[in-house]
Amino acid sequence: MTKIIGLTGGIGSGKTMVAEYIKSLGIPVYIADDEARELMNTDKVIQAISAAFGKEILNDGILNRDKLAQIVFNNPEKLTILNNIVHPEVKKHFDIWVEKHKAYPLLFKEAAILFESGSNKDCDAVITVTAPLETRLQRVMQRDKKDRESILKRMQNQWTDEQRIAKSDYVIENLSIEATKEHVKEILKLLKNR
Q: Is the pTM higher than 0.85?
């Protein structure tokens, strides 16, 4: 039977690097944020979002992500409204993906807000990727070309490492790529024998 493994971590923790490494080992990984981004471009979701947030978040019928981000990351209630539109669509999409990949013994779902969205309930085990706050900030500032304050604001909308760790089966402290890869391999062995 296929086991679904949740993979999560705060912004800048390195969970995407871990997901890419797992993919390189031939294990399918569903990247929830990427799929959510794609689903947010569908007519159905665009209509629901513009109905909730107003037509001014659209540019010629296309979602203005920056404008939407400014609204939701400064207002937890609006973030909840957005999540309530997008998450059910991601869940449906993920279920179809799982069905297509059910021949694999392990499937991974990488999601920044795995616990916040309740997606962890669909997982047989959860891995949290962590890194020190300063490391995470530096990574995101380099990657996204955003200022420290806006990144810290985004972090405040996510669970803390402590909250995630308390509900996780495995924790990877991502300090060096080689050590992280070795830790992933150890966890994969444990998962296959679980």
A: yes
Fold topology of 3-188: Rossmann fold (3.40.50)
Q: What secondary structure does DSSP assign to 94-151, as a single string?
A: HHHHHHHTTTSSEEEEE-TTTTTTTGGGG-SEEEEEE--HHHHHHHHHHHH---HHHH
pLDDT tops 90 at residue 150:
no
Would you say 6 and 118 are in contact if contact means Cβ atoms under 8 Å apart?
no
128-140 pLDDT tens trace: 999 999 999 999 9
Helices of type H across the chain: 15-24, 32-39, 43-53, 65-72, 76-100, 133-144, 148-156, 161-166, 177-193
Using DSSP bridges, classify how beta strands 58-59 and 106-110 pair: parallel, antiparallel or unpaired.
unpaired
The percent of residues above 70 in pLDDT, for the chain, comes to 100
- Residue 82 to residue 48: CA distance in whole angstroms: 9
pLDDT (tens digit, 9 = 90+) per residue, 58-110?
988 889 988 998 888 778 899 889 999 999 999 999 999 999 999 999 999 99
Q: How far apart are CA 52 and CA 43, in angstroms?
A: 14
Query: Residue with structure tokens 């304050």?
Result: 149
What span, in angstroms and rounded, lies between the C-alpha atoms of 157 and 131? Answer: 17
Task: Give the domain ranges of the chain.
Answer: 3-188
CA distances from 193 to 3, 95, 189 (A): 11, 24, 6
CA distances from 10 to 23, 26, 50, 132, 146 (A): 20, 25, 28, 10, 16
